[in-house]
Amino acid sequence: MKTNLYSELLAKLLSNDSIVTSYDISLGDDKTTTANVTNTTMDNELGTVDATFSYNNNTHRWTSQVNGFDATFDGETIREIGVKNDTLIGRTTAFTPFTVSSGELYFIEDYSELNQSANTTRTIVTDTGITNLHQGIEGISTDYPTHIAFSTHLILDTFNVTTGWTPTGGTVALSTNKQEGTGSVALTKSSGSTTVSMTKTLGATVDMSQATILRLWNRINTTTTFDTFTTTNCLTIRIGNDSSNYKQIQLDKSDLFTFWNLLQLDISTFTTTGTVDMSTIDYLYIAIETNNSTDTWSGEEVLFDFMSGVWDITDSDTTLHEEVVRTAITIVERENTNVTYRGTLGTGDGNTYNYFYAALFDAASNGDMFVVNELYLTTKDVNRQLNSYFEIAVRIIS
Amino acid sequence: MSDTKIVKTINSERKVKSSINPKALIQSSNVISSTQVSIRDRPLAVKNQDISNMAVWDNPATTWDGVDTNDRWDSYNTSNIVFSRVVNKNNLFVENFDYEAFNISGTATWDTTNQQLTFTSGQNQVIGPAFKDSSNTQTVVAATLNVTISSGSFDLEMSADGGSNWESVTNGSSHTFTNTGSDLRIRITENNSSTGTITLVRCSYTI
Q: Whole-prediction pTM value?
């Protein structure tokens, strides 16, 4: 089993401490004590042989050969095997002893795995991060996290301008009452139809193929206006490629409240009309259904703000989708097997966004992404600096 | 509408601790992100090769002249390398197809790039030894096989005696061996005249 000194070695790599990257397999003829993660020595080491490190995907191994003619081991009974650099980083559990015989060549292979299985789906050590660790163990790379990046969701529309929004059965106007960005869009309703809608064709397509949730802010200012909404299917939202090919969800009045609502909608439950290419979304449609065609409202009774897609993060991600800003890590602290990184967005950095993801990179731009985390909803404005603490714990698991 | 359509309707959800810096009168948000890198022990294996008749440096049993009987350097033959010990932490063997070290035999495709084992109709694969004690001192009496199947249908078997006797097992259920032994192996066979893929094999055994 690997020892805590091995966890510490990985933590050192993550915090850019130097480590010894030459390895030995150690053979011992005693097994008085039980192997434990806290071990720092074997019971009695007979000698060592050079070991070669290699890795593939998540798994790595040390291999070595012991020649039975080697006088150090010839005739000795081997009761335990260890892996060492300058310290003991691995010690075997018990096995039936064997006696080294001249005329035999012994191949020793010790396997371990680095993975992210203990994390939730919203906190991922990427494959790139694992590869960097492997290369650090091997001594062919000294990459480690130096920057923290922040990102928003896949932005479909910021609602900071009314440009492009075409109302039917009402008007659109810009409002400063907003949740994200610099404004929101107010939708008014005139008499003549039970439906008021707004449609927009985006100037550029958005790849929503990895998005699982559609997110939209909606404000209903007063109960008077809210009372005009139909009990069922009062709010319709469509995203798609055009007015004939879209995905749609309809919400009931019971799903909404007065004041600001943050709608987070499961895209997999949307109904599909026509054929929708989710990788090229450029058609947005929002409609409100009222009880009577004579129902009207004006001003800022109904607002919409910041429509976005929430994307899935995966092990194989190499970039942070919709990255907005990146800041240098100013403090790296390691305590045993825990590493903490700290970076700060100053009052002038990355404002007017709500951040949903943070990631560790090894460069001020581009570079390798080690870890990506969901932040939920973190506001940043000119009156606020954002201190980001990123903790990585290295743990031995069963 | 059903509740499943809407994930959440909230006014705000901030997992942020806020504080006021009294000197600068700037509000600070502290965002804490935590993650873990996990280390999982995998097998330790010892293999043996009989080199007593090979021209090997330091071998006093050989009449060393640097050449074999045909006046050539001996070629290195790996065919007689055999497992003598395989041990696992907590008696749990895990195969995720990153290496082929435990590919004993079979016709399935052992894909170390995509970390999977792929089958066509009727193909089989023997994996192991999941445990090995060539001295036959320790004996495997029971084991539980957990195979992660991403597609297809398979017959699952285990042998505790090095493949002499194969015993059918149910995925995820404990199996007590009729024929115990010291060489634990796993055999997986595609059984539905189709294709299939396996991404992980876990075998917990009792000695």
A: 0.81
